[in-house]
Amino acid sequence: MDKQWLDDQFERVGWDLEELLERIRYFAPDAKPTLVGYPRPVPADTDKCLTPAPGQTELPLADIPKDVLPFLDQIQKRLDDTMKKAVADASADFVDLYAHTDSNTACDGVNRGIGGLLENSQIKIGDDQFLPWYGHPNEKGRDIQAQQVAYKVEQILNR
Fold it and tell me: Which of 2, 93, 146, 152 is the most exposed place for a label (fewest CB within 10 A)?
């Protein structure tokens, strides 16, 4: 992957977020914009990703090589940092899910808040087939994220 291309994409995301937040301020001056970040999918200890979660047969992140996982985590962290900067520049609020989900990644076994790439979700796509999580929040992740969002909203309303 070309570093300049990636840098350009992050710059574009930052500009788009700043423009979005400016439009919100323009069209809804009394609004309290709050941007919700992404949860952390890859743990710092990538060895955890080499074992299927309890009850699963596939690795949490499928066949993504272990040496690529830190790069994926860096991308996710950089995206969150880009979001934080845009929010700070716009005097908006941010829910930092990345920081609050470091022990609930896709590779954290029974504590995972992210379903494995090939792990079946609870969404049926046939009589006996289920849509995989594809790295999206599972029930635990949904609850963790909802708690963090509710906490931030409560903080904002009590200012």
Answer: 2
Q: What is the pTM of this model?
A: 0.88
Tokens (6 digits) for 122: 């609870």
Structural domains of the chain, with CATH: 32-157 (3.40.50.1110)
pLDDT tens digits, 67-91: 999 999 999 999 999 999 999 999 9
DSSP string, the chain: --HHHHHHHHHHHHHHHHHHHHHHHHH-TT---EEE-PPP-S-S-GGGGGSPPTT-SS-TTTT--GGGHHHHHHHHHHHHHHHHHHHHHTT-EEE-HHHH-TTSSTTSGGG-SB--SSSEEEEESSSS-EEE-TT-B-HHHHHHHHHHHHHHHHHHHT-
Query: How many whole angstroms separate alpha carbon 45 and alpha carbon 85?
Result: 27
